[in-house]
């Protein structure tokens, strides 16, 4: 097989331009250490903040998520970054202004306005959490940050350059990887299984990701591995995950995560990185 480059040209390194629950900053070094040295197209179906993508900077990628506001923001950063930066400049970290923005209907906005609205709320809401109610409306309270950086112009431009190599999709994870070929690399970062029996899933898109979805994901993982695709997945270190991925390499790591509903209560939590190669 022809040797393929794992990373593209390095200029100013891009970082995630949003905060995201379950972001991979804590375990990024562990993930990168296990990534294949060479691969074809990079796939990341649960994109979130995209920390792994931005660190790898692949020459070709398929990036996807079911959150339409998130994927619209990525599209606008890639294709209309100057207009987005101009729009972000007008926002302010003020409680009354925040709730006025939160109550707006994104359906009435242009793509650039909606991306600006989404990034503003993400930067100023409590803990950077994206949560919607049953009606699909964002309902996280104001975060009370002293001086949040709503506009990081240089990083937005770096992210825009990195995303030029990416095919961006709002799609289910199984659909997103259906074109993966032998030698391609797929990283799955699904909503983690709860650590305790009383824990519940947080809804980021209005759709749940329950045990049946975890089982479907494990089957897709096995199918891709049999096909010769490099597949990597992260999740909680719980018995169900170990059962679903029995037969694959399972590495245990520790990550500092919030261990209650309060963001200031953090501790080391067991996670696993699973690879099919």
Report on this structure.
This protein has 277 residues and is α/β, with parallel strands linked by helices. It folds into two domains: 2-68 and 158-275, Vaccinia Virus protein VP39 (Rossmann fold, 3-Layer(aba) Sandwich), CATH 3.40.50.150; 72-155, Adenine-specific Methyltransferase, Domain 2 (Adenine-specific Methyltransferase, domain 2), CATH 1.10.1020. The chain contains ten helices and seven strands. The chain has a seven-stranded mixed β-sheet with strand order 3-2-1-4-5-7-6, with helices on both faces. Strand 6 (249-258) and strand 7 form a beta hairpin. Helix 3 crosses helix 6 and helix 4 packs across helix 6 (111-124). The radius of gyration is 19 Å and the shape is globular. Mean pLDDT is 89; it is low at 1-10 and 197-206.
CATH architecture name of the largest domain? 3-Layer(aba) Sandwich
Percent in helix: 25-40%
Distance between the termini: 16 Å
Order of helices and strands: HEHEHHHHHEHEHEHEE
Large-scale geometry: globular
Q: Please name the CATH topology of the largest domain.
A: Rossmann fold
Top CATH class of the largest domain: Alpha Beta
- Radius of gyration computed on alpha carbons: 19 Å
Number of strands: 7
Classified in CATH, the superfamily of the largest domain is Vaccinia Virus protein VP39
The major sheet is characterized as: 7 strands, mixed
Structure class: alpha/beta
Lay out the secondary structure.
Layout: H1 28-34, E1 42-44, H2 51-56, E2 61-64, H3 68-79, H4 81-88, H5 95-102, H6 111-124, H7 153-163, E3 166-169, H8 173-176, E4 185-188, H9 211-227, E5 230-236, H10 239-244, E6 249-258, E7 266-275
